[in-house]
Amino acid sequence: MLALTLVADLSGVTELLPDDTVDNPYFYTFKVQCTSCREIHPNWVNVSRFESNEISGSKGEANFVWRCKSCKRESSASIKTSPAPYVHDSPPKRQNIIEIDCRGLEFTEFKADGEWLAKGLESPTSFSGIDLQEGEWFDYDEKVGEEVSIKDLTWEIRRA
Question: What pTM, to 2 d.p., does this model score?
Protein backbone atom coordinates (compact mmCIF):
# COMPACT_ATOMS: atom_id res chain seq x y z
CA MET A 1 0.00 0.00 0.00
CA LEU A 2 1.33 3.42 -0.99
CA ALA A 3 0.20 6.87 0.09
CA LEU A 4 0.38 10.10 -1.88
CA THR A 5 1.52 12.68 0.67
CA LEU A 6 1.80 16.44 0.65
CA VAL A 7 3.58 19.14 2.62
CA ALA A 8 2.46 22.67 1.71
CA ASP A 9 2.50 26.16 3.15
CA LEU A 10 -1.16 27.24 3.26
CA SER A 11 -1.86 30.88 4.03
CA GLY A 12 -5.49 31.86 4.71
CA VAL A 13 -6.86 28.56 3.34
CA THR A 14 -7.39 25.02 4.62
CA GLU A 15 -8.92 21.72 3.50
CA LEU A 16 -7.06 21.58 0.17
CA LEU A 17 -8.16 18.59 -1.90
CA PRO A 18 -8.61 17.53 -5.52
CA ASP A 19 -11.96 18.31 -7.15
CA ASP A 20 -12.86 14.61 -7.39
CA THR A 21 -16.50 13.58 -7.77
CA VAL A 22 -18.34 10.95 -9.83
CA ASP A 23 -19.60 13.74 -12.15
CA ASN A 24 -16.20 15.44 -12.31
CA PRO A 25 -13.47 12.84 -11.63
CA TYR A 26 -9.92 13.91 -10.86
CA PHE A 27 -7.23 12.09 -12.82
CA TYR A 28 -4.19 11.51 -10.60
CA THR A 29 -1.08 11.73 -12.81
CA PHE A 30 1.89 9.49 -11.96
CA LYS A 31 5.15 8.05 -13.27
CA VAL A 32 4.98 4.26 -12.99
CA GLN A 33 7.72 1.67 -12.34
CA CYS A 34 7.48 -2.12 -12.80
CA THR A 35 8.48 -3.90 -9.58
CA SER A 36 9.64 -6.98 -11.55
CA CYS A 37 12.20 -5.49 -13.93
CA ARG A 38 12.42 -1.99 -12.28
CA GLU A 39 11.78 -0.30 -15.65
CA ILE A 40 10.28 3.20 -15.31
CA HIS A 41 7.65 3.94 -17.97
CA PRO A 42 8.69 7.12 -19.84
CA ASN A 43 5.16 8.58 -20.06
CA TRP A 44 2.90 9.92 -17.34
CA VAL A 45 -0.20 7.81 -16.62
CA ASN A 46 -3.61 8.93 -15.34
CA VAL A 47 -5.63 7.11 -12.70
CA SER A 48 -9.23 7.84 -11.72
CA ARG A 49 -10.74 6.27 -8.61
CA PHE A 50 -14.06 6.01 -10.49
CA GLU A 51 -12.73 3.92 -13.42
CA SER A 52 -12.73 0.12 -13.35
CA ASN A 53 -10.60 -2.02 -15.64
CA GLU A 54 -10.57 -5.81 -15.81
CA ILE A 55 -7.43 -7.63 -14.75
CA SER A 56 -6.44 -10.33 -17.30
CA GLY A 57 -6.92 -13.92 -16.10
CA SER A 58 -8.74 -12.74 -12.99
CA LYS A 59 -12.23 -11.88 -11.88
CA GLY A 60 -10.87 -8.75 -10.26
CA GLU A 61 -10.91 -5.14 -11.37
CA ALA A 62 -8.64 -2.19 -10.65
CA ASN A 63 -8.63 1.55 -11.29
CA PHE A 64 -5.44 1.15 -13.33
CA VAL A 65 -4.21 -1.93 -15.22
CA TRP A 66 -0.84 -1.73 -16.97
CA ARG A 67 1.44 -4.08 -18.91
CA CYS A 68 5.18 -3.41 -18.71
CA LYS A 69 6.70 -3.03 -22.18
CA SER A 70 10.00 -4.55 -21.03
CA CYS A 71 9.00 -7.73 -19.17
CA LYS A 72 5.35 -7.97 -20.37
CA ARG A 73 3.99 -8.49 -16.84
CA GLU A 74 0.57 -7.08 -16.09
CA SER A 75 0.20 -4.99 -12.95
CA SER A 76 -2.61 -3.06 -11.31
CA ALA A 77 -3.37 -0.29 -8.86
CA SER A 78 -6.51 0.85 -7.08
CA ILE A 79 -7.12 4.02 -5.10
CA LYS A 80 -8.47 2.78 -1.76
CA THR A 81 -9.58 6.02 -0.11
CA SER A 82 -11.43 9.17 -1.03
CA PRO A 83 -9.02 12.09 -1.04
CA ALA A 84 -8.37 13.46 2.43
CA PRO A 85 -8.22 17.24 2.73
CA TYR A 86 -4.85 18.79 3.50
CA VAL A 87 -5.50 21.00 6.52
CA HIS A 88 -3.64 24.16 7.49
CA ASP A 89 -0.91 23.51 10.05
CA SER A 90 1.88 25.71 11.35
CA PRO A 91 4.55 24.64 10.69
CA PRO A 92 3.36 22.59 7.68
CA LYS A 93 3.29 18.81 8.28
CA ARG A 94 3.23 15.87 5.85
CA GLN A 95 -0.32 14.55 5.37
CA ASN A 96 -1.77 11.66 3.33
CA ILE A 97 -4.04 12.66 0.44
CA ILE A 98 -4.91 9.19 -0.96
CA GLU A 99 -3.91 5.56 -0.39
CA ILE A 100 -3.20 3.27 -3.33
CA ASP A 101 -3.04 -0.54 -3.39
CA CYS A 102 -0.38 -1.43 -5.99
CA ARG A 103 0.23 -4.95 -7.34
CA GLY A 104 3.39 -5.39 -9.44
CA LEU A 105 3.98 -1.68 -9.93
CA GLU A 106 4.87 1.41 -7.95
CA PHE A 107 4.09 5.03 -8.60
CA THR A 108 7.32 7.01 -8.29
CA GLU A 109 6.32 10.60 -8.99
CA PHE A 110 3.12 12.70 -8.88
CA LYS A 111 2.09 15.68 -11.00
CA ALA A 112 -0.74 17.90 -9.72
CA ASP A 113 -2.76 18.23 -12.93
CA GLY A 114 -6.41 19.15 -12.68
CA GLU A 115 -8.40 21.39 -10.38
CA TRP A 116 -8.27 21.59 -6.60
CA LEU A 117 -10.59 23.02 -3.93
CA ALA A 118 -9.95 24.81 -0.64
CA LYS A 119 -11.83 26.70 2.07
CA GLY A 120 -11.05 29.98 3.76
CA LEU A 121 -9.19 29.52 7.05
CA GLU A 122 -11.00 32.36 8.82
CA SER A 123 -14.00 32.81 6.52
CA PRO A 124 -16.72 30.71 4.86
CA THR A 125 -15.18 31.40 1.42
CA SER A 126 -14.88 28.38 -0.90
CA PHE A 127 -12.14 28.42 -3.52
CA SER A 128 -12.46 26.25 -6.62
CA GLY A 129 -10.53 25.83 -9.86
CA ILE A 130 -7.21 25.95 -8.02
CA ASP A 131 -4.34 25.12 -10.39
CA LEU A 132 -1.24 23.73 -8.64
CA GLN A 133 0.78 22.83 -11.74
CA GLU A 134 3.13 25.79 -11.22
CA GLY A 135 3.79 24.74 -7.62
CA GLU A 136 2.00 27.73 -6.08
CA TRP A 137 -1.36 29.53 -6.11
CA PHE A 138 -2.45 33.00 -5.01
CA ASP A 139 -5.90 34.57 -4.63
CA TYR A 140 -7.75 37.13 -2.53
CA ASP A 141 -10.35 36.37 0.17
CA GLU A 142 -12.74 39.32 0.01
CA LYS A 143 -14.57 38.28 3.20
CA VAL A 144 -11.44 38.85 5.33
CA GLY A 145 -9.72 41.32 2.99
CA GLU A 146 -6.48 39.35 2.74
CA GLU A 147 -4.40 37.51 0.16
CA VAL A 148 -4.48 33.72 0.40
CA SER A 149 -1.89 31.35 -0.99
CA ILE A 150 -0.63 27.81 -1.36
CA LYS A 151 3.17 27.58 -1.69
CA ASP A 152 6.15 25.27 -1.25
CA LEU A 153 4.33 22.09 -2.28
CA THR A 154 6.28 18.87 -1.78
CA TRP A 155 4.63 15.71 -3.09
CA GLU A 156 5.92 12.30 -2.02
CA ILE A 157 4.79 8.73 -2.57
CA ARG A 158 5.51 6.63 0.54
CA ARG A 159 4.69 3.28 2.04
CA ALA A 160 1.36 3.61 3.87
Answer: 0.92
